[in-house]
């Protein structure tokens, strides 16, 4: 039995706690209402339409991506701008079609910055509205002016493109330099062991994957036989920088922790984070705790790992009380590939899994699987969960996000689809130009037209049909999602209409 004094005292404490709690809650709600929403783009590398549970994968389980898809808007007609990485990333950030820039191709690690420093970008637009901006993960749109000295400050780069904070790999996991760069400086660089990089020739005395083939941790299938780092042969030659080299198996954790730290450091101001995952691009190097988890070999395991990272990242947003004030966008830069240059069992252990879902082609392809990808928007308390078949593209994010944050900045190719991304409208893009390895195709309504392209119909090394045909191809995706029936000769008037509109958009 409590005496009067004790219960009075406890009551007082309860009142104090409650009022403190209530005030806090009111204060933080008020703060959130006034505050512009945080924006996070989680961008996977080579994740296919069929690699995600919510998009039909049954073999491979992706519970965290599914949580975003089922709790947000899941787009079934969401596109990247290109079927390869650098062009898609360029278009995502600039809101400009990559085929307008002749340099927007898969870049070597030594390529100069692809985005001109006076070009508008998502982070630059957001900075005009008071945002702090950060990128963690894969960059792959060039650095410097073409003559980068990796041993001094590297610029122009993320900073000049609009990112206040950056923790990146320069190109891809399979390309040198195999080091992290934080705010323009190589992490853990030892000045006594300077880094030299070449994509032309080896450095005297350095071993390569070609010579040391029998000593490799992961053997190369095509390409990827230059410098060996951590037993994995790469594209390009590298000398020095021993202490700075990344540990491939730790890369997922490294990027995750930097992303979480970024959120914690900037939770009191509106922020934009571009979290560019490296999975499931080659070389696929899951942390040991994910090895064997998918049953599909390393490709499946790194997707499970990426899914876990996404879950942990969302947990951080939640713990920091930011989930209801953050728009999360999840997508991928291009379609899937199994064998992309290493013997890593991706083909052998794929089993019944269909990385492209019901779509034709894959990475490098003008067929649907090259650019139609998982595309999810999630905003707890703001987006009512749903599925949308509206035709949307990553190229529209610049103008759409501008709308969201109260900016009128736009670029010619990028249109406002914010209501669609928030699930309030089902309006489709009028049309969309798709690109793959410097070739283009045209989508309008349910039709897709692929102009004649010479060259092999299939890239044999990766075993992907890339859409080349000497004749015009026309597909009706409403009845033929898998692009099996070319109806160009049956529907000449539709073909002509598409040709004219396409010529108008791509001219000059
Ligand atoms: C190709 C590589 C491939 C991958 C791709 C870029 C060879 C033979 N193949 O040239 O492995 O690195 O470039 O992928 O070198 S992307 O997702 O960054 O576009
Ligand atoms: Ca990619």
TrEMBL record:
Keyword Iron carried by entry: no
Gene3D superfamilies in the cross-refs: 3.30.1120.10, Alkaline Phosphatase, subunit A
Keywords of the record: Hydrolase
MF terms (GO), sorted A to Z: hydrolase activity
One of the Pfam families matching this protein, by short name: Sulfatase
Top-level taxon in the UniProt lineage: Bacteria
UniProt keyword annotation of Hydrolase present: yes
InterPro entries: Alkaline_phosphatase_core_sf, GAG_Ulvan_Degrading_Sulfatases, Sulfatase_CS, Sulfatase_N
Domain Sulfatase N-terminal: 37-406
Similarity remark: Belongs to the sulfatase family.
Protein name according to UniProt: Arylsulfatase
Species for this entry: Portibacter lacus
